[in-house]
Amino acid sequence: MSYATEDNITDLAADRWGTAHDPRLAEVMTALVRHLHDFAREVRLTEDEWLAGMRWLTEVGRISDDKREEFILASDVLGLSMLVVQMNNRFGPGATPATVLGPFHIDGSPAAPYGWDMSEGIAGTPFFVTGTVRSVSGEPLAGAVLDVWQADADGAYEAQLEVDEARLRAKYRAREDGTYCIRSIVPLGYAIPMDGPVGDLIARTDISYFRPSHIHFLLEEDGYERLVTHLFAEGTDHLEDDVVFGTKAELVTPFVHHEPGPAPDGTTVDVPFVTAHYDFVLQPTPA
Ligand code: BEZ
Ligand code: FE
To answer: What domains, with CATH codes, occur in the chain?
Structure first.
Protein backbone atom coordinates (compact mmCIF):
# COMPACT_ATOMS: atom_id res chain seq x y z
CA MET A 1 0.00 0.00 0.00
CA SER A 2 1.29 3.52 -0.74
CA TYR A 3 0.33 6.87 0.71
CA ALA A 4 -1.17 9.38 -1.72
CA THR A 5 1.03 11.82 -3.63
CA GLU A 6 0.16 14.29 -6.36
CA ASP A 7 1.46 11.77 -8.88
CA ASN A 8 -0.21 8.57 -7.69
CA ILE A 9 -3.52 9.81 -6.26
CA THR A 10 -5.44 9.31 -9.51
CA ASP A 11 -4.42 5.64 -9.79
CA LEU A 12 -5.12 5.08 -6.10
CA ALA A 13 -8.60 6.62 -6.29
CA ALA A 14 -9.44 4.88 -9.57
CA ASP A 15 -8.35 1.51 -8.16
CA ARG A 16 -10.41 2.08 -5.04
CA TRP A 17 -13.58 2.93 -7.03
CA GLY A 18 -12.87 0.03 -9.36
CA THR A 19 -13.84 -2.27 -6.48
CA ALA A 20 -17.54 -1.38 -6.94
CA HIS A 21 -19.49 -4.64 -6.88
CA ASP A 22 -21.43 -3.90 -10.04
CA PRO A 23 -18.97 -3.97 -13.01
CA ARG A 24 -20.76 -1.11 -14.79
CA LEU A 25 -20.61 1.06 -11.66
CA ALA A 26 -16.90 0.24 -11.37
CA GLU A 27 -16.36 1.29 -15.00
CA VAL A 28 -18.32 4.54 -14.61
CA MET A 29 -16.71 5.54 -11.29
CA THR A 30 -13.18 4.75 -12.44
CA ALA A 31 -13.63 6.90 -15.56
CA LEU A 32 -15.26 9.67 -13.53
CA VAL A 33 -12.33 9.79 -11.11
CA ARG A 34 -9.80 9.90 -13.96
CA HIS A 35 -11.66 12.65 -15.85
CA LEU A 36 -12.22 14.74 -12.70
CA HIS A 37 -8.56 14.56 -11.79
CA ASP A 38 -7.51 15.39 -15.36
CA PHE A 39 -9.83 18.40 -15.30
CA ALA A 40 -8.37 19.67 -12.00
CA ARG A 41 -4.84 19.22 -13.36
CA GLU A 42 -5.62 20.87 -16.71
CA VAL A 43 -7.00 24.07 -15.16
CA ARG A 44 -4.70 23.85 -12.10
CA LEU A 45 -7.78 24.19 -9.87
CA THR A 46 -7.12 26.42 -6.84
CA GLU A 47 -8.54 25.71 -3.39
CA ASP A 48 -10.80 28.79 -3.62
CA GLU A 49 -12.14 27.61 -6.98
CA TRP A 50 -12.73 24.11 -5.62
CA LEU A 51 -14.65 25.59 -2.69
CA ALA A 52 -16.70 27.86 -5.00
CA GLY A 53 -17.59 24.77 -7.05
CA MET A 54 -18.66 22.87 -3.95
CA ARG A 55 -20.79 25.82 -2.77
CA TRP A 56 -22.40 26.04 -6.23
CA LEU A 57 -23.27 22.32 -6.19
CA THR A 58 -24.65 22.70 -2.66
CA GLU A 59 -26.91 25.52 -3.87
CA VAL A 60 -28.06 23.42 -6.87
CA GLY A 61 -29.15 20.74 -4.40
CA ARG A 62 -30.65 23.21 -1.93
CA ILE A 63 -32.94 24.86 -4.50
CA SER A 64 -34.10 21.55 -6.01
CA ASP A 65 -37.32 19.88 -4.92
CA ASP A 66 -40.03 17.71 -6.44
CA LYS A 67 -40.96 20.54 -8.85
CA ARG A 68 -37.60 22.19 -9.48
CA GLU A 69 -34.86 20.11 -11.13
CA GLU A 70 -31.79 22.35 -10.94
CA PHE A 71 -29.34 19.46 -11.48
CA ILE A 72 -31.14 18.48 -14.70
CA LEU A 73 -31.12 22.13 -15.75
CA ALA A 74 -27.36 22.26 -15.14
CA SER A 75 -26.90 19.14 -17.24
CA ASP A 76 -29.10 20.67 -19.98
CA VAL A 77 -27.17 23.94 -20.28
CA LEU A 78 -23.82 22.11 -20.23
CA GLY A 79 -24.95 20.08 -23.26
CA LEU A 80 -24.67 16.83 -21.29
CA SER A 81 -28.38 15.96 -21.46
CA MET A 82 -28.52 16.34 -25.23
CA LEU A 83 -25.28 14.35 -25.70
CA VAL A 84 -26.76 11.48 -23.68
CA VAL A 85 -30.04 11.72 -25.65
CA GLN A 86 -28.19 11.55 -28.97
CA MET A 87 -25.95 8.62 -27.96
CA ASN A 88 -28.93 6.60 -26.71
CA ASN A 89 -31.48 7.37 -29.44
CA ARG A 90 -29.64 6.62 -32.67
CA PHE A 91 -32.74 5.91 -34.70
CA GLY A 92 -32.63 4.85 -38.34
CA PRO A 93 -33.38 7.08 -41.33
CA GLY A 94 -36.95 8.34 -41.41
CA ALA A 95 -37.60 7.97 -37.67
CA THR A 96 -38.48 11.14 -35.75
CA PRO A 97 -35.44 12.22 -33.72
CA ALA A 98 -35.45 12.54 -29.94
CA THR A 99 -34.61 15.63 -27.93
CA VAL A 100 -34.39 16.60 -24.25
CA LEU A 101 -37.11 15.68 -21.78
CA GLY A 102 -36.49 18.87 -19.79
CA PRO A 103 -37.43 19.48 -16.17
CA PHE A 104 -41.14 20.21 -16.62
CA HIS A 105 -42.65 16.84 -17.54
CA ILE A 106 -45.22 15.65 -14.99
CA ASP A 107 -46.21 11.98 -14.80
CA GLY A 108 -49.82 10.88 -14.86
CA SER A 109 -51.39 13.44 -17.21
CA PRO A 110 -55.14 12.94 -17.75
CA ALA A 111 -56.29 10.82 -20.70
CA ALA A 112 -57.78 13.00 -23.44
CA PRO A 113 -59.96 12.08 -26.43
CA TYR A 114 -59.19 13.07 -30.04
CA GLY A 115 -59.34 16.87 -30.37
CA TRP A 116 -59.55 17.54 -26.61
CA ASP A 117 -58.69 21.15 -25.65
CA MET A 118 -55.94 20.80 -23.05
CA SER A 119 -55.87 24.58 -22.52
CA GLU A 120 -59.45 24.67 -21.15
CA GLY A 121 -60.00 28.42 -20.84
CA ILE A 122 -56.32 29.47 -20.42
CA ALA A 123 -55.73 32.69 -22.37
CA GLY A 124 -53.93 32.38 -25.70
CA THR A 125 -54.28 31.84 -29.45
CA PRO A 126 -56.04 28.53 -30.23
CA PHE A 127 -53.55 25.97 -31.52
CA PHE A 128 -54.24 22.65 -33.22
CA VAL A 129 -51.63 19.95 -33.78
CA THR A 130 -52.63 17.11 -36.09
CA GLY A 131 -50.90 14.26 -37.90
CA THR A 132 -50.35 10.54 -37.68
CA VAL A 133 -48.21 8.21 -35.62
CA ARG A 134 -46.66 5.49 -37.75
CA SER A 135 -43.74 3.10 -37.90
CA VAL A 136 -40.74 3.56 -40.18
CA SER A 137 -42.36 0.98 -42.50
CA GLY A 138 -45.39 3.29 -42.87
CA GLU A 139 -47.84 1.25 -40.78
CA PRO A 140 -50.23 3.45 -38.71
CA LEU A 141 -49.79 2.86 -34.97
CA ALA A 142 -53.34 2.73 -33.64
CA GLY A 143 -53.50 3.39 -29.89
CA ALA A 144 -50.00 4.91 -29.62
CA VAL A 145 -49.90 7.23 -26.60
CA LEU A 146 -48.93 10.89 -27.07
CA ASP A 147 -48.16 12.47 -23.69
CA VAL A 148 -48.14 16.23 -24.45
CA TRP A 149 -47.06 19.22 -22.33
CA GLN A 150 -46.19 22.83 -23.00
CA ALA A 151 -45.69 26.32 -21.62
CA ASP A 152 -48.51 28.87 -21.65
CA ALA A 153 -48.64 32.14 -23.60
CA ASP A 154 -46.37 33.70 -20.94
CA GLY A 155 -43.81 30.90 -21.23
CA ALA A 156 -44.73 29.29 -17.87
CA TYR A 157 -45.19 25.55 -17.17
CA GLU A 158 -47.57 24.03 -14.67
CA ALA A 159 -44.58 22.95 -12.55
CA GLN A 160 -43.64 26.63 -12.12
CA LEU A 161 -47.10 27.71 -10.93
CA GLU A 162 -49.20 27.07 -7.83
CA VAL A 163 -52.03 25.04 -9.39
CA ASP A 164 -53.65 21.83 -8.27
CA GLU A 165 -55.14 20.64 -11.58
CA ALA A 166 -53.39 19.41 -14.71
CA ARG A 167 -52.58 22.50 -16.80
CA LEU A 168 -51.55 22.37 -20.46
CA ARG A 169 -50.79 18.68 -20.41
CA ALA A 170 -52.75 15.59 -21.45
CA LYS A 171 -52.32 12.07 -22.83
CA TYR A 172 -53.87 11.49 -26.26
CA ARG A 173 -54.07 8.24 -28.23
CA ALA A 174 -53.72 7.77 -31.97
CA ARG A 175 -56.95 6.55 -33.63
CA GLU A 176 -57.31 3.32 -35.67
CA ASP A 177 -55.74 5.02 -38.73
CA GLY A 178 -52.89 6.46 -36.61
CA THR A 179 -54.26 10.03 -36.62
CA TYR A 180 -54.23 12.33 -33.61
CA CYS A 181 -55.58 15.83 -32.94
CA ILE A 182 -54.57 18.09 -30.04
CA ARG A 183 -56.18 21.41 -29.21
CA SER A 184 -54.28 23.88 -27.05
CA ILE A 185 -52.90 27.44 -27.19
CA VAL A 186 -49.76 28.61 -28.99
CA PRO A 187 -46.78 28.13 -26.61
CA LEU A 188 -44.38 31.02 -26.12
CA GLY A 189 -40.61 30.60 -26.21
CA TYR A 190 -39.21 31.24 -22.73
CA ALA A 191 -36.19 31.85 -20.55
CA ILE A 192 -35.00 28.92 -18.48
CA PRO A 193 -35.25 29.57 -14.71
CA MET A 194 -32.60 32.23 -14.06
CA ASP A 195 -33.20 32.76 -10.32
CA GLY A 196 -30.95 29.91 -9.15
CA PRO A 197 -27.30 28.84 -9.32
CA VAL A 198 -27.53 27.82 -13.00
CA GLY A 199 -28.85 31.29 -13.86
CA ASP A 200 -26.13 32.93 -11.72
CA LEU A 201 -23.47 31.13 -13.74
CA ILE A 202 -25.10 31.87 -17.12
CA ALA A 203 -25.37 35.56 -16.16
CA ARG A 204 -21.55 35.64 -16.08
CA THR A 205 -21.40 34.64 -19.79
CA ASP A 206 -22.78 35.79 -23.16
CA ILE A 207 -24.96 32.66 -23.37
CA SER A 208 -28.56 33.29 -24.50
CA TYR A 209 -30.83 31.75 -21.88
CA PHE A 210 -33.91 31.28 -24.08
CA ARG A 211 -35.60 28.30 -25.67
CA PRO A 212 -37.49 28.62 -28.96
CA SER A 213 -41.29 28.19 -28.94
CA HIS A 214 -42.07 24.46 -28.77
CA ILE A 215 -44.48 21.79 -27.58
CA HIS A 216 -43.29 18.58 -25.89
CA PHE A 217 -44.25 14.99 -26.76
CA LEU A 218 -43.50 11.63 -25.20
CA LEU A 219 -44.73 8.84 -27.48
CA GLU A 220 -45.12 5.24 -26.37
CA GLU A 221 -46.26 2.16 -28.25
CA ASP A 222 -45.51 -1.51 -27.57
CA GLY A 223 -42.75 -2.83 -29.80
CA TYR A 224 -41.32 0.66 -30.49
CA GLU A 225 -38.63 2.79 -28.90
CA ARG A 226 -40.02 5.41 -26.52
CA LEU A 227 -39.72 8.80 -28.21
CA VAL A 228 -39.16 12.00 -26.21
CA THR A 229 -39.30 14.93 -28.58
CA HIS A 230 -40.63 18.45 -29.32
CA LEU A 231 -42.10 20.32 -32.25
CA PHE A 232 -40.56 23.76 -32.75
CA ALA A 233 -42.27 26.70 -34.48
CA GLU A 234 -40.60 27.45 -37.80
CA GLY A 235 -39.18 30.98 -37.92
CA THR A 236 -39.36 31.54 -34.15
CA ASP A 237 -36.50 33.17 -32.20
CA HIS A 238 -33.67 31.11 -30.68
CA LEU A 239 -33.88 28.04 -32.92
CA GLU A 240 -30.15 28.39 -33.50
CA ASP A 241 -29.03 29.26 -29.99
CA ASP A 242 -31.41 27.07 -27.94
CA VAL A 243 -29.83 27.21 -24.47
CA VAL A 244 -30.22 23.43 -24.01
CA PHE A 245 -29.03 22.46 -27.55
CA GLY A 246 -32.39 20.72 -28.10
CA THR A 247 -33.41 21.99 -31.56
CA LYS A 248 -33.22 19.64 -34.56
CA ALA A 249 -34.00 20.56 -38.16
CA GLU A 250 -36.42 17.61 -38.54
CA LEU A 251 -38.53 18.94 -35.64
CA VAL A 252 -38.95 22.50 -36.93
CA THR A 253 -42.51 22.71 -38.22
CA PRO A 254 -44.60 25.49 -39.79
CA PHE A 255 -47.04 26.97 -37.27
CA VAL A 256 -49.63 28.21 -39.81
CA HIS A 257 -51.84 31.22 -38.97
CA HIS A 258 -55.54 31.15 -39.98
CA GLU A 259 -58.41 33.61 -39.94
CA PRO A 260 -61.52 32.59 -37.90
CA GLY A 261 -63.27 29.62 -39.50
CA PRO A 262 -63.32 25.80 -39.64
CA ALA A 263 -60.62 24.14 -37.52
CA PRO A 264 -59.01 20.69 -37.84
CA ASP A 265 -61.09 19.23 -34.98
CA GLY A 266 -64.29 19.85 -36.99
CA THR A 267 -65.37 22.88 -34.93
CA THR A 268 -65.55 26.51 -36.10
CA VAL A 269 -63.25 28.91 -34.29
CA ASP A 270 -64.39 32.54 -34.11
CA VAL A 271 -60.92 34.02 -33.50
CA PRO A 272 -57.66 33.70 -35.46
CA PHE A 273 -55.93 30.37 -34.78
CA VAL A 274 -52.75 28.43 -35.57
CA THR A 275 -52.22 24.88 -36.86
CA ALA A 276 -49.23 22.55 -37.06
CA HIS A 277 -49.17 19.20 -38.85
CA TYR A 278 -46.61 16.51 -38.07
CA ASP A 279 -46.31 12.75 -38.59
CA PHE A 280 -44.38 11.04 -35.80
CA VAL A 281 -42.40 8.05 -37.02
CA LEU A 282 -41.39 5.51 -34.37
CA GLN A 283 -38.40 3.20 -34.49
CA PRO A 284 -39.13 -0.50 -33.84
CA THR A 285 -37.43 -1.92 -30.74
CA PRO A 286 -34.64 -4.31 -31.80
CA ALA A 287 -35.77 -7.96 -31.51
C1 BEZ B 1 -38.09 22.55 -21.53
O2 BEZ B 1 -38.18 22.55 -22.72
O3 BEZ B 1 -39.13 22.45 -20.91
C4 BEZ B 1 -36.77 22.72 -20.88
C5 BEZ B 1 -35.74 21.89 -21.24
C6 BEZ B 1 -34.52 22.05 -20.64
C7 BEZ B 1 -34.32 23.05 -19.69
C8 BEZ B 1 -35.36 23.91 -19.36
C9 BEZ B 1 -36.59 23.74 -19.96
FE1 FE C 1 -40.23 23.22 -22.85
So the answer is: 9-77 (no CATH), 81-282 (2.60.130.10)
